Amino acid sequence: MSNRAPGHKPRRAEVTFAAAVCAALAGYNNLAGLRPWHRRYYPAVNTLATAVTLAAAAASGLTADELGLGRDKLGQGLRLGSAAAAPVVAAFGLAALTPATRPLLDDQRVAALSGPRLAYHVLLRIPVGTVAWEETAFRGVLHAALRRVLAEPAATAVACAVFGIWHIRPAAEALAANRLAADCGARISAVAATAAGTAAAGALLSLLRERSGSLAAPVLLHLAANCAAPLASALARRSRPGVTTGRRCRC
After folding, report:
1. In 3-state terms, what secondary structure has residue 102?
2. 240: left (phi over 0), alpha (psi -120 to 50) or beta
């Protein structure tokens, strides 16, 4: 449901804020992510970005309920999010334990992680630096800002498109790390397909946010997917004869 009342004409300040959030998020991950300081202090930098984004949202007049942070919807969000996350975790676990599907989980970025570095990624870097930041930014602030100026289907479509753009750099880096899509045309196609797939995933996360009224639901699904993937990759790699895990990480 849109935040706009029937016949309401969005104020210029609301339109400006929504456009500014779109532009900032479209550029942030693709530009800041190239900087060594962003990679090194990833959880801290993105926690600061989360705080700044929430402060800007509050200054623009968005409420906790509009952002999916209302306490009355938390229980519903936890229930729906847990129900959505459980099959994702089960699927990754099954894939890691099945010899035929283990090669599909191979990721050189995970192979380069030692045990402590993998724990750091799963317990801190992903939950704080990725999931909390992205869900607050996209399913929280961006979607709420867009719903003040657009009808619900359009607001979701724009938010998902920006979410896809956000993942262009990570997609390109993943392809390079795993030595996939060697020529330029193949890389462009693969990155575009990844961005489109991420946008579709954003639509599912937005649906959970709308159905539950809470950010807790998309947070749990996002957390399950992003943490289960490297854990399953590490488990699959350790289960393959003659394969060892690296001790160094470039992250």
Report:
1. helix
2. beta
Model-level pTM? 0.88
Please, is 123 exposed, middle or buried when counting C-beta atoms within 10 Å of its C-beta (0-12, 13-18, 19+)? exposed
Residue 7, pLDDT score: 53
Which residue positions in the chain have pLDDT lower than 50?
1, 5, 245-251
Tokens of 238: 């350790």
Q: Say what the pLDDT of residue 4 is.
A: 56
Phi, psi of 132 (to 5 degrees): -60, -40
Closest CA to 158 of 190, 130, 195, 199: 199
Cα separation, 207 vs 203, in Å, equals 6
What was the pLDDT predicted at 173? 86
**Residues 106 and 23 sit within 8 Å (Cβ to Cβ):** no
Q: What are phi and psi of 60, to 5 degrees?
A: -80, -5
Q: Which two tokens stand for residue 222?
A: 């996002």
Element (H, E) at 230: helix 216-239
What pLDDT is recorded for position 241?
A: 61
